[in-house]
Amino acid sequence: MSDLxxxxxxxxxxxxxxxxxxPDVIATSLEGYRVTSxxxxxGDCDSEFRGPTSSVDVDRSTTSRLIDNITPWRRYRVTxxxxxxxxxxxxxxxxxxxxxxxxxxxxxLYSKV
Length: 113
Fold this sequence. Notes:
five-stranded antiparallel beta sheet, three-stranded antiparallel beta sheet
């Protein structure tokens, strides 16, 4: 299994583009990726609000996914998991949507096996 790095960016005020690196060597055991998004904050504070989680599985040749219907003034956490027949590797990042809908402050939080 290989490291996974996730990058988030704004396409427009209602859409996040999640893109990730493909492993250097694509193992035959790589089955695909799971992209999960969730609201993890409201406004400019560190609230404990959690929204519902949305997940979709994508083919192993895919390295990006659009996340639509973003709500202004929320913080989104996006996780991409590379799915192997013996486990998974996760990359996690967060992005904020301002009160005007501008997507800012994207950061790669961590990768883990």
